[in-house]
Structure formats: C-alpha cells, structure tokens
C-alpha cells in the first residue's frame, strides 16, 4: 500500500496555552478509511485543520502526496487544497443558492477569480455535478435551494461539493454530529463507498466510537493532543478505549465484540 499522508512529530500550540497537539505521528494509505476518535478537546479538529493548513502546525512535518504541506507557498497550497476535500459538521453551504450551485462551488479553487465570481461553469462541469448528485441520491433536488433540504441532504451536498474537486483525500470534521441516526448511516455508507469503490482516502473525526469501529480500516485515538492508539479497528480493545477516553470511557455505550463480529 502506498502512503498518501504522513504526519511526523506534529505539534500545535495556541498562544501560551498547553499544546493542543504533541508529537503526533501516523501514516494514512491510499484509499484507506481512517477515523480519529477522542474526548472533547483532545485535538481532533486541530489535527484535521493542520493537515490542509487551515491553521499552521507549530512543529513537525506533514507530507501529502509526497509534498511537504507545511512549506507550500500560496499558489502550491491552493493546488494541493484542490486535492483535499473538506466536509464540515454544519455543512457550510450557501443557503440561498441551489444544490447544483453549491456543488459547483467545489471547483472554485480551480477557476480564475473572474469565472468564479460570475459563477461561470461549463456544460461538462454541470453534467459532472448532476452525476455526483445523482450518485448521492439527490437527483430530484438539484435545483432546490440549499435551505429547503434536511440535514442529511445538506451533508450529501457537502460531499458532492468535495467530490467535484476530484480529490485524492476527504477530511471530514464530525460529519454526522448534527444528524439523526438514519441520516448519519446514509452519510457514513456514502463515505465508505467513496473510500472502497472510488479509492479516495477518507479521514473522519467522530464522537461515536461504535460508528468509527464499524466503518474504519484504521483508528487513530487521541487524548490530550497525543496519539494513544494507532491501529486496525479490528484490534482495538476496551483497554485501548479506556486509554483514549480516560474517565469518559465508562459512559460510552458500546459492545466491541458485537461490532467486531458484525
Ligand atoms: N483557535 C484556538 N485558539 C485557542 N485554543 C484553541 C483553538 N482551537 C482549539 N483550541 C484548543 O485546542 C484544544 C483542542 O481543540 P480541538 O477543537 O482540536 O478538540 P476536538 O478534539 O476537536 O474537540 P471536540 O470533539 O469538542 O470538537 C482544546 O483545548 C481547544 O480549547
């Protein structure tokens, strides 16, 4: 398997606060589905944001597709970001725009400023948007305004907007945290398909341990900014969960044996 992302000795400190990330190391392979789990404030979002340079890590090295992301200048960074799709908990759609227009926003990074401002998309781009939206079960909603959709539908538009970039990797920051269980399952099923059938690497921050274990090839467990578990979801034990969640572990309702068997 080829490594697509390598995170080496990465740290992040906000001002004089204690470190949000401390000597974080892991590798993610091409097409792998990875969940990052850990208690609130562990550093999950900070880690995802460092990977696509929404924020700058304080130290260490992040290599994506053989490029050192932390050294990239503005133009190179813009190019790399077209290969890394981002999915947000609150979808980040433009409510007054249609589903297809929101989807097409995913290719703004590849367009000239003028074309982007004027919303100039060619026929091939529009057809591609329709294909992706149909694949995600939104074929009937293409011309609806985004604010007329349910949460689960909005998140599928968020996925469509990321997919139209033709990314190598998706970073998903708590993509199901605002959704009911049925919509959450639909989103996780789509993300799994995107990884296993389209070969796109998927990294997901999750609060739900059971969901992480069910869908992921690999789990990265973080506690207080440090990686305390890095391995196959099949190998994780209750002791590992305790190390990741500390005293919160007792409150987590899960049956590792049952999940591993399913
Ligand atoms: N912009 C910021 N300025 C200062 N401190 C920050 C900032 N962003 C995050 N932090 C701190 O960094 C630490 C990690 O936060 P982060 O949001 O990455 O955790 P998380 O694991 O994603 O939490 P949650 O599951 O609650 O979203 C926390 O102590 C948080 O207060």
Automatic annotation (TrEMBL):
Domain of life according to the entry: Bacteria
Any GO molecular function: ATP hydrolysis activity
InterPro entries associated with the record: AAA+_ATPase (IPR003593), ABC_transporter-like_ATP-bd (IPR003439), ABC_transporter-like_CS (IPR017871), ABC_transpr_PhnC (IPR012693), MetN_ABC_transporter-like (IPR050086), P-loop_NTPase (IPR027417)
Protein name as annotated: Phosphonates import ATP-binding protein PhnC
PROSITE patterns associated with the record: ABC_TRANSPORTER_1, ABC_TRANSPORTER_2
Keyword vocabulary terms for this entry: ATP-binding, Cell membrane, Membrane, Nucleotide-binding, Phosphonate transport, Translocase, Transport
One cellular component (GO) term of this entry: membrane
Stored Gene3D superfamilies: P-loop containing nucleotide triphosphate hydrolases (3.40.50.300)
UniProt-listed CDD domains: ABC_PhnC_transporter (cd03256)
């Amino acid at each position: 398997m080829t490594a697509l992302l390598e995170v080496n000795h990465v740290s992040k400190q906000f001002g004089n606060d204690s470190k949000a990330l401390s000597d974080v190391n892991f590798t993610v392979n091409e097409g792998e589905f990875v969940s990052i789990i850990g208690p609130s404030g562990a550093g999950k979002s900070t880690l995802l944001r460092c990977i696509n340079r929404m924020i700058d890590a304080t130290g260490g090295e992040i290599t994506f597709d053989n490029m050192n992301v932390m050294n990239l200048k503005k133009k190179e960074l813009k190019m790399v970001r077209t290969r890394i799709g981002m999915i947000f908990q609150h979808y980040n759609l433009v409510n007054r725009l249609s589903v297809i227009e929101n989807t097409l926003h995913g290719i703004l990074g590849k367009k000239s400023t003028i074309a982007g401002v004027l919303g100039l998309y060619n026929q091939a781009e529009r057809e591609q948007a329709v294909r992706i939206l149909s694949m995600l079960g939104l074929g009937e909603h293409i011309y609806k305004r985004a604010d007329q959709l349910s949460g689960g539908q909005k998140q599928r538009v968020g996925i469509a907007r990321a997919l139209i970039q033709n990314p190598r990797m998706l970073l998903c920051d708590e993509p199901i945290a605002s959704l009911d269980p049925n919509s959450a399952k639909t989103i996780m099923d789509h993300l799994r398909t995107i990884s296993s059938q389209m070969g796109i690497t998927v990294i997901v921050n999750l609060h739900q341990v059971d969901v992480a274990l069910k869908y992921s090839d690999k789990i990265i467990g973080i506690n207080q900014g440090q990686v305390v578990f890095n391995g196959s979801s099949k190998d994780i034990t209750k002791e590992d969960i305790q190390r990741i969640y500390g005293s919160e572990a007792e409150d987590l309702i899960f049956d590792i044996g049952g999940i591993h068997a399913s």
